[in-house]
Amino acid sequence: MHEVKLSDGIITLSPLRLDDTEAHLAGEDERLVRWLSGGPGTREGVEAYIRHCREQWDTAGPLRAFGIRVGIDEALAGTIDLRFTAEGLSPGQVNVAYGLYPSWRGRGLATRAVILVSRYAASEGAKQAVIRVEPENAASSAVAPRAGFTPDKHTRGADGTRLDWYMRDLCIDTR
Fold this sequence. Notes:
By secondary structure, this protein is of the alpha+beta class.
């Protein structure tokens, strides 16, 4: 697999790797479970997910999952992923989903990660990035406009959950 590394000098995004398992399990909290994963992680489950993510990278699949890394030691602060195909998306759209571990929240890292990953998505041919978030998830909702996204529409997920959509047109030269 070609190792992708994106950086803005403050954070680095690189594909998830098996040695991220412990940091992920240690960083997971009720908010990540509720808004992102849907259930508490287990070592076996996280390792299986990371293997799946690596396979997606190796086969140029529709999922590109990154670790959000901070500092010289590239400590894992959270995750961000792109889905180039997903239910409800039009051709050319890419879904962006992200989550930070509690000790890293409130520092602007998610906004930085969304901007970096949007540049990457544009370089991979995406025309528009989409963030879909439950209205009650105020922290994630606040990231979208800071990263240049604008409110668009409201839909309901398969389970009936309301989702607010934020959109951003992409070009290779995104900020």
